[in-house]
Amino acid sequence: MNDTFLRACRLEPTDSTPVWFMRQAGRYMSEYRAIRARHTLLEICRQPELAAEVTLQPVNRIDVDAAILFSDLLLPLDPLGIPFDFVKGEGPAIERPVRSADDVRRLTRFEPREALEHVLATIRLVRRELDGRVPLIGFAGAPFTLASYAIEGGASRAYALTKGLMYSEPEVWHRLCETFAEVVSDYLLAQIEAGVQAVQLFDSWVGALSVRDYREFALPHTQRIISAVAGSGVPVIHFGTGTATLLEAMTEAGGDVVGVDWRVALDEAWERIGTDKAVQGNLDPTLLLGPVHRMLDGAEAILRQAGGRPGHIFNLGHGILPETPVENVQALAHFVHARGA
Amino acid sequence: MNDTFLRACRLEPTDSTPVWFMRQAGRYMSEYRAIRARHTLLEICRQPELAAEVTLQPVNRIDVDAAILFSDLLLPLDPLGIPFDFVKGEGPAIERPVRSADDVRRLTRFEPREALEHVLATIRLVRRELDGRVPLIGFAGAPFTLASYAIEGGASRAYALTKGLMYSEPEVWHRLCETFAEVVSDYLLAQIEAGVQAVQLFDSWVGALSVRDYREFALPHTQRIISAVAGSGVPVIHFGTGTATLLEAMTEAGGDVVGVDWRVALDEAWERIGTDKAVQGNLDPTLLLGPVHRMLDGAEAILRQAGGRPGHIFNLGHGILPETPVENVQALAHFVHARGA
Is residue B340 within 8 Å of residue B19, measured between CB atoms? Predict the structure, then answer.
């Protein structure tokens, strides 16, 4: 098995820097668009054969060192009693946003091995198909990011409703995040049981918080999830965007790898995270739109900052954009590998 | 005249910390909504009597130490040949986005003293009405932020088209930004001539760039504007959001005051900016939604970080949100003043 990714998570030396890409399965691939032409995003997530097929598409075409489960951060919301859908061109839309103590009280804890069995079936299917080629990464959303969707009702810029609830009804906020933390812990443990070999916790929007607020409102809940999962022995990657001022606090939340975006230089980030942890990132995804020489130049700068030290996993600072040419993603993976560790 | 704001810009001691708020004239005030019920945003911007009235509304109701011209960042786009409008609930919409060398070539330089005479008339009117009560701040958008609107056609999350043009056609990008830099320099000088006593350059979305890209694609153009304006002797405030990793580079661009958002602690920010410059900020605007004790607690933390050192201008990290209760804004201004310098 290609274990460079798992070795890097554990800070062990590798022959070359492992690489995978957030949203490596997605609209930038014609194979994916062909499936999306016949199925909605949620249909793909909920049908193990389709989700497994999509998960494997980039592994078959791009020289990545890990597969990541094709799924969506929001899946746990539905069995909790927060139904949602994806509105064409507008992203997720929550039918009845969570905005009061009553809304939080109404949430129903669930057993992921039942309600999200389709995800676990996907994992088993992918593991079988991968047959040890590369490890499989599972994932879930962190409480702040999940709460922001549940409260805003979809994507947001200012997170005014989210922070409004946080500030004005902190007990309601904490109860909501505790619920998410319990559900996400169970869900990640179920994914691990089903066969994922690492997990990534996406706190994609947590960069909207000041350090002070992160410590009070997000850190304890994320910490709880990471502790719950840590006992399983699989590496935990903790990722967010716009987190330049949060790195120390995010590191305190635990985990083996901290994922950073392009706004912070990788060497600076790593120093602040501490060299006893691995680091993942951090090329600006827009660089993959081309031209190729700029993309490679950016990748080279990151590899130079990592300095060949064991524990760097090459990735982007956020997901691959739909407009990205597949050839550029292929060229980037090739470049990272060819350069050696 | 209340000159605490201008004194703080020049790092001179003041009896209390000066305070003003980005978007202090706006939808959170009933007086403003009453005018907006009868006029569009652009009508208000283009009619000096209306724009002056709106500029003065917060000065009459909130204990601020400066007025800021009511206007919009995008006004210079129209005379350049990039017409736009505001679409209800969706923000600005550019009719024909700028995406090619030809589009940039077609832009027409203009004389702000003619094309934007209504803004200058507003300034003269406001100065007369203020009659020395507090100084008046003028403003304009910085090249990166203006370019992002012109290229995307409106607001954006990933700035894929903006960065796409930047990376793939750097000469076109630089030509576009040079045009913006010239126009904005002229425009700010005309505002100063008309009577503004300080100017703020808004690079609101520049936090989307890595430090590397900021230095290559944004810094030289912003620097050019600030140098052009510096000779006039009025203080220049340079502001952006999500700039935690850009502060050193933004400081190099010049200016007297650097405005920072809530993601970075004010003391850390000031240290990095250098104590030979003033600093403006940086309360999270969502804290103004309440409860008041949390808002004041956040303000207190900022004032403590500033440590009473001359050169701190209290402000938010971004504009006042429309949902904000006026009483909270009043209470905040009062609190900052009552606490002494």
Answer: no
